[in-house]
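Collaborator request log, item 7. Partner lab (contact: R.S.) asked for a structural prediction of Peptidase A1 domain-containing protein to inform their binding assays.
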Amino acid sequence: MLLPLQIIVIVLTFISHEHEAIAAYVPPYTSVIAPVHKHTDAAKPLYSVQIMTTYVNMQYLHENFLIDIDAPFIWHDCIIQWNIYPGSCPANTLCTSPVSCEEFQCTDVRSSYSYQKPYCSPPDNSSTLPGWGYCTCPVNVVDPITGSCGQAMLNYDDFTVNTSNGKNVFTGSYGFYPNAACAPSSAFQSFPANVTGVMALSSSPYALPAYLFEPLKKVVGLCLPSTLSTPGVLFYGNSPYYLLPQSDVDVRSYLSYTPLIKRPDSFGYFIGVNNIVIKKRSINIPANATTKISTLDPYTILRTDIYNPVIRRFSMVTKRIPTAKPVPPFGLCFSTQGGLRVPDIDFSLPEGKKWTMSSANSIKQVTKDVACLALVDGGATSEPAIVIGTFQMEDNFLVFDLENSTFGFSSSLLRKQTSCSSFNFTLVDSF
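Returned to partner:
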């Protein structure tokens, strides 16, 4: 009896050590990463993130998704098939599996997390697939450029992204499997060229952050590029962030943080702004005013009662600069023939924090000789009262920390001799 007992002890010891080794394993990556591209060929400047969607002929296919930090779920150009087998999917088309109208995800998305627009017709359960014994799950989608309503089919998707330690992009990949939605190709006619999807980065349970798990932390790092030629970067995970040429400086050392404010009617991100400061003079913000961060609005929008005093103050401190005829949508423009030096605009936040908008983020060159203050009058009833647009976010490193419900911001990286287009995307082996 002794020998079998010894064998059992040895086996149990081996299993114990194996479990300890698994528990002690620390992956080489701290985040996943994807390039971010700027587009100016649509009705307004927009930004996309590139994701790997399917593996065909020994390589991944890539798709560009419009970045929307307010969208309730991911949707893109694809078709659903109930029985996917080799050769069944049309060439150059992404095929995914359907969600049935009888599954809980269908009811959940429709009732709680769908696009809530009064002009969208409520979806029904009348659609089916050939040979499919169940009804499919149509859901409403809204074109983020035109605002028009359409329908897509909820599915089981399969995406892949590269891993990173914040400094390098690894050859190793990370897969995630969201309930996204398939829309027809015609739904993307207003989108920039080669952009065929919407990547939801909101707090919704069906947005990207809900589908990425340990060891990744629920932290989105977003750096929008100001140039078309070189991409910016999207991180997901509590990683250090390194940008060239300061390859030994963690960008997190540049960040200040302010609380994220939750609103029951939105999955987007809101912060508190106490006042706007221009050359030591404060413009007070009403206590009930809310400030939204947007990746779809190109310029910061201010409600009229905030916009007018900001314009008056900026006009006063730049009165030596010759003005030019306003170029819509802007209300204050300058002649740049003699050069243009303007003061910073500080958004004062709770706990003494401030988000500084330097001239790179406040002045938009619209013609060779005319530049304008890149703020837009939102009207007397604009809600939210302030919307921070993408021009003000370019070359700023932003962090949406869903773990701690905080928003991190760097102000302009150009003053740190780097930019959002300075990440090293060269692939390296992770081992």
